[in-house]
Amino acid sequence: VSRGGEAAHVAIFLRQRPGEPSRCCVHRLDDPCGPPTAAVSFAQADAATVRWNAEGTALLLQLSTEVDESGKSYYGSTALHHVLAEGPASVVATPGGPIHDVAWCPTRDEFLVLRGHQPCNVALYCGRKAELLRDFGEDLGQSYWNTIRWNPFGSFLALGGFGQLAGDLDFVDTASRSKLGQCRYDCCVDCQWSPDGRLLMGWTAAPRMRVDNRVEIYDYLGNRLLKIDFEELYSAAWRPAPGEHDDRPPTPGRSRVAGQAGDGK
């Protein structure tokens, strides 16, 4: 369900059946029985993840298949589609290789895509037409990432490599498109920015991980500020504080603390 806009919409993904392709239909919630405001079908799609932009005017549909019929990947194939809530749909043009993660900016009509074989790169697209705005490979290079986390103001990014990857975390200033710092958080399950956009909390939790459950908090330079161990942890989250904080640029003169204990590097 879309989160903003004058009229709320809901996107429904229908998996393929014999003789019928997979498809996605978008409906207005104030007219759920009416014709779809947008519809797109796919020759191959076993699962889909839907992500709406903040305005509720467009969504990204990340598709995956269990089997890659081209034989290029053991893990199946992926594709990314851009769908306007009341308009056409298009395939987001990406180079070869899988789509690892996509994320809308919370304050601007644009989105990021982690794309390509590992080590992958990150690219920025226009939210209205899904056109490539910038390939961040020139600024950030490539790394082993599969997770994108914008801070609430869209000013800082955390790019992580979790799951089967080593746990590298890179912190990025989006205005200058430069790395602010990096660290390593082994066995991190997920992470979340604080409401003021200055701190990143990560956690290792069950059922994904049954040992070494913990919460770790880092500043936007990658300095670890806090670590709390738990015998068993299921989830963690910041307490919401909408409207209580203003965006701030990086503090002049602050830098990454080299050789910090617990970085894993």
Q: N- to C-terminal separation?
A: 41 Å
Radius of gyration: 19 Å
**How large is the count of helical segments?**
1
Supply the helix-strand structural class. mainly beta
The largest pleated sheet is described as: 4 strands, antiparallel
**Strand arrangement, largest sheet?**
4-5-6-7
Number of strand segments: 19
Mean pLDDT: 90
Q: What share of residues is helical?
A: under 10%
Q: Give the amount of beta strand, in percent.
A: 35-45%
Return residue spans where pLDDT drops below 50 for at least 5 consecutive residues.
none
Helix and strand element order? EEEEEEEEEEEHEEEEEEEE
Cα shape: globular
Fold topology:
Blueprint: E1 9-14, E2 22-28, E3 38-42, E4 47-52, E5 58-64, E6 78-84, E7 89-91, E8 99-104, E9 110-115, E10 121-126, E11 132-135, H1 137-140, E12 147-150, E13 156-160, E14 168-173, E15 178-184, E16 190-193, E17 199-204, E18 214-219, E19 224-229
Antiparallel strand pairs: 1-2, 2-3, 4-5, 5-6, 6-7, 8-9, 9-10, 10-11, 12-13, 13-14, 14-15, 16-17, 17-18, 18-19
Tags for this model:
265 residues, mainly beta, 4-stranded antiparallel sheet, 19 strands, 40% strand
